[in-house]
Amino acid sequence: MKRSILFIFVLLAVLIAACAPAPTAVPPTQAPAVEPTKAPAATTAPAQPTAVPATKAPEATKPPAPTATPVPVIPPGRVVVEFWHGLTMPLGGILEGVAADFNKSQNKYYVNAFYKGSYPDTMNAAIAAFRAGKAPHIVQMFEVGTATMMAAKGAIKPVYELAKETGLNIDPKMYIPAVAGYYSLDGNMISMPLNSSTTIMYWNKDAFKKAGLDPEKPPKTWAELRAMAKRIVDSKASNCGFTTSWLTWAQFENFGAIHNIPLATKMNGMQGMDAELKINSDVHVRHMQTLVDMQKEGSFKYGGRDNAPDALFPSGECAIFHGSSGTRARIINEAKFAWGAAMLPYYDDVPTAPKNSIIGGASLWVMTAPNRTVDEYKAVGEFFRYISQPEQDAKWHQATGYLPITIGGFERTKASGFYDKNPGADVPYLQLTRTQPTENSMGLRLGDMPAIRIVIYEEMEKAFQGQQTVKQALDNAVKRGNELLRAFEKTYK
What we know:
The chain is α/β, with parallel strands linked by helices. It is about 40% helix and about 15% strand. It is built from 19 helices and 13 strands.
């Protein structure tokens, strides 16, 4: 059993790529910095090596290594909780400050939070520690690793079980439904939400004005977006009308949620490992064909995988941009033009659209170890109770720029006037809560999702380069992706 758990962890570590670069710090008078939701970089998919596309943009500059965390002086008599995280500075420092505040709030428990490297570095360290019977009490892991973490049942203690055993009262209803649903199974929370973001739209108001468009009216539909992007290019208001970062996350995962169409069967994998991909539906083909056609007419630019296209908007290269709500900080620091933030567009002839978007980010997992005591689990539970309070959530949201993940956190932030001083900072929350989540907008729980994302990139890049049709690309992605799902199911079911 232990060997199978270790194998699961090893596979997860192999699939996860390096953590996203930390955002540039923002002056206190501006909106705070946010770490982008991290999708995996181009690693090797099991089926075949990942080719680097000719159109791929240069990789983002890596952030400087964070300052070494000083050895803490732990007051005697405290029950100590080891908390390993993967947030670089300044976000990691803010998170460690939350732990420090918890430590000061009472005199029984002590959370020792410290940076263990990127998400894969942190996971590798957890594997080694688990093998030695010394796993940390808490480890942070990004959202697309949820299915694999859940498969490691003997190595993790679900949050709802922790709550029952320790008397902890964490009500999933206090969280944004799109957040609670992502990290829950049958209504029971499996991991503890922490840092969440979503995909939104940004637009260059100066370029709109130069093109003769109303700078205060961003596109609401895809028809409007395409028309505006073409007009911007034709009028030479900008070299590029539209680009998107995180193609798989923004234009497949969030696109499906907003249009209430499945990314996969079985509630996008939430109802079982035997899910099958559905990204070759008529709506998906139509949307990807729109992007290919826009590329041919010059109104869309494919800037590469993951967050490689992020620089295209703040530089002024592209006038409309879809990316993580976490890019807000970079835009504030780098853009030399007036800009705005809005919800993602949709096809207004697709029934029931638009729905809520889905999240990215990371959550906290409770790990097991031999001889772990009841008091240690109680300490973990008390820390979770502390960070889930609306006042703490609001403080975290305002300090980091991550979403307020509790309804109370949002209400407190709004009442404080924060959104009046930071226009558009509430767009991610409003988009996530626009509707109650459906079976198609609850979130994802697909095995080997990092590798599936790579498969989608590879096939769509061939379509962008004219090597195959969009239909062929998505059919191939479904075939290859399903092979990964069946391998995952065979291994872990």
